[in-house]
Structures are given as C-alpha cells and as structure tokens.
From TrEMBL:
Subcellular location: Membrane
Pfam families in UniProt: CbiQ (PF02361)
Domain of life: Eukaryota
Signal peptide (from-to): 1-22
Record protein name field: Protein ABCI12, chloroplastic
GO annotation, cellular component aspect: plasma membrane
Major subcellular location class: membrane
Keyword line: Membrane, Signal, Transmembrane, Transmembrane helix
Length: 395
C-alpha cells in the first residue's frame, strides 16, 4: 500500500508552478503505521522549500547561437581532451607516459643513420664535451644561446626524427623551467632591508638625474616578482649549461659505443696510473655502467607495460590500493635490476674475473685512428674557443 504525497508551493515563498512538461508533483512513499501523514507533510515542506522553478530562458536569435557554437568549436580544436572512457590524469595515463618515455633510446648507441659525428674519434668527442661544459659559464649571453642553437641543430642533423623530437622537447622543457625559476627568483623579491642613507632633499643636495640612455636594471615585473639583469645573467647561464650538458652527453653516447668511450678515457687517464690512481677499476666501472643503462630503461618500460596490460579498473580502487600498486611497481623494478646485476657478476666470474681489473685483460674491441674528420672537429673547436674569448670585444 502506498501513500501519495501532493507537493504544493508555499504561499509566502511565492513560488511559481512548474511548467506543463515538468515531472509530476506527487511522490509515492511506502506507508508506515502511526506516522505516514506526519512524515509526508514534512517531506512536502522540505521539497517545496528546496526546489526552485527554472529560470525563464532569455530570448536569443538563431544567428547568435550559431556564432557562439562555431566559436566554441574552433576553440575546442586547440583544447586537448583525454581519450574516450579514460580519466584526464589517472594512474594508467601515468604508466603509459612512463612506458613511452622509457621506449626512447636515451643514452643508447644508434648505428643508423651513420653521420659525420660517428666517424669522429672518441678522444676528440671527450675534448668537445669538456669545452661545452666550460664555455657557457665563461662567455656572454649571446654566446650561450648560440651554443644552445648549435647543439639543437646538430641534434636534428645527427639523431633520427623520433629520437631528437623526444629528447630536445624534454631537455628544452627542463631548461626553460630552470630559466623561468632562476630569472624571477634570483633578484625577483624586493629587498626587505631599507637603506639608512637619507634622501637627497634632506641632505640639501640635488638629486641625481635619471639616465637618458634607456638603461633599466629591471626588465619585467610580474606582480611582486621582477625579472632583472642579474636574474637574466644567472638564469641564462644555468639554463644554457644544463641544456649543453644533457644534450652534448646524449649526442656523444648516441654516436659512440661504450667500448670506444672506455678506450678514449683509458688513453687520457693512463698517465695517472703511475701516481696510484686505480685506472683499471674506473674504466671497468664505466664500461659496466654504460652497459647497464639500457637494462634499467628496459625494466622501467616492461614493468609499466605489464601493469597496463592487466587492464586494472582504477576507479574501483581506493587511494591506498593505488599507492600500493605503485610501490610494488618500484619494488619490482629494483628487484629485476638486482637480478640482472647478479647475473652479470656470475657471468664475469665464469669468464675468469676475480675482482682485480689490473690482472684481468680488458678488450675494447676498437681501434682509434686520427682522420680528416678529427682534424676538422679540432679546428672548429679552436675557432669556437677563440670566438668565445673575443666575443666581449666584438659586441
């Protein structure tokens, strides 16, 4: 048996009646003995008090609606939308992003297409790496940005399309973030210490006139922050140095095998062996590290793809369960990496290695030869260093 509760508008609220197409104003409720009438009246009072009639639509022409719809459609093309049936920034999207980032051959040797940089001697490449670390810190701002543009163009020329597009984008994003943070943070906040020198009007001396040359220490203001010349100098140095270090190392590792790099470093460090420097241990550690980088990226990618392939319904999981899955993901990565390290150690022991690199022959399987490409690279390096030295006088 059910009781029909009739909902009526309260007279003192002056609510308008609902339109003809609205839902019916009665609601069937299960009847209970002893309190059906009282509860029904309470429900009618609450519903009538909370409900409000729909606002009348404003008159609009069809031309205005079409213009608004076309403008919204044009803006919607530029707004990135998540895939159908997925959350905007869910755990599955994070794992897909990790697997996609690890799929790019970062710090891996790319044999094809073979370019001019592949034929350069690794010893010359190490000298270039050292110069690209020193020059951004010792040159002016035009030289710093020139080195950034030079490395970007060289990466586009040497690396494959799918490699340089991914690497340049991430390195440029990191360098841009460093530039913005240091530019506004170095000298951006106003000083809290006030000068104790009285103004010129109190001392009775004329004030110094403003400069007519257009010089301004403050370049830009953004609310309470300000972008000054000091911030520009620090930000350009740090951002250019970060870009040069990451991108030059990526170019060197992409166009040089680990054996060639170990052989070049051995050639530079062999005189230090006479003063007690453990050169064989350093070279063997470098060789194993360069070989191990690929395994780390493969494990990160494979573990992320394994979770994505299981099609977990993340909406039904609590926050702690999601965090637990990510902790298990990180634990699995480290476990697999340690397993690979143990297998490498067992393979080295099986081949006769007993922990002393000086008594164990290291085969680099490469021969270094000085060619015309190496001579041209050294001439370009000397020209760049000379330009950096006299850039202040030329500008």
């Amino acid at each position: 048996m059910a009781a029909a509760v009739h909902l009526r508008a309260l007279p003192w609220l002056a609510l308008r009646p609902p339109p003809a197409k609205a839902a019916p104003s009665w609601l069937p409720l299960p009847a209970k003995p002893g309190g059906a009438r009282r509860r029904g009246s309470r429900l009618a009072l609450l519903v009538c008090s909370a409900a409000s009639p729909p606002a009348p639509a404003a008159p609009s022409s069809s031309g205005g609606d079409n213009a608004t719809a076309s403008a919204a459609a044009s803006w919607a093309k530029w707004i990135p939308r998540p895939a159908a049936g997925r959350a905007g920034a869910g755990p599955e999207q994070v794992l897909r992003l990790i697997s996609g980032a690890a799929a790019t051959p970062v710090c891996q040797f790319v044999d094809k297409p073979r370019t001019f940089l592949h034929s350069v001697d690794p010893r010359v490449k190490l000298v270039w790496l050292l110069a690209l670390v020193v020059l951004p810190a010792r040159s002016n701002i035009y030289m710093r940005f020139g080195l950034v543009v030079f490395l970007a163009l060289l990466s586009v020329w040497v690396l494959p399309n799918h490699v340089w597009k991914d690497q340049l984008g991430r390195v440029a994003l990191l360098s841009g973030f460093i530039f913005i943070m240091l530019g506004f943070g170095t000298d951006g906040a106003p000083s809290l210490v006030q000068t104790r020198t009285p103004p010129p009007s109190v001392l009775g001396i004329p004030s110094i006139p403003c400069s007519t040359s257009g010089y301004s220490y403050t370049i830009m203001k953004l609310g309470p922050l300000q972008f000054t010349r000091k911030g520009l100098s620090v930000a350009s140095t740090s951002a250019s140095l970060s870009f040069a270090i990451f991108q030059s190392a990526s170019l060197c590792l992409t166009t040089t095998t680990p054996e060639q790099l170990a052989s070049a470093l051995w050639w530079f460090m062999i005189p230090l062996k006479h003063i007690g420097v453990p050169v064989p241990e350093i070279i063997l550690t470098l060789l194993l590290s360069l070989r191990f980088i690929n395994l780390v990226f493969d494990e990160v990618r494979n573990s992320a793809l394994a979770i994505v392939a299981r099609r977990i319904n993340w909406k039904k999981l609590t926050a702690m369960e999601t965090i637990d899955i990510f902790f298990n993901y990180i634990r699995r990565i480290f476990k697999n990496i340690f397993d690979h390290a143990e297998q490498i150690s067992k393979a080295m022991i099986a081949r006769g290695f007993r922990g002393d690199p000086s008594n164990h022959k290291i085969y680099f399987l490469t021969e270094s030869s000085f060619s015309f490409a190496d001579l041209f690279s050294l001439l370009c390096l000397f020209g760049l260093m000379g330009l950096a030295s006299y850039s202040d006088r030329l500008i």
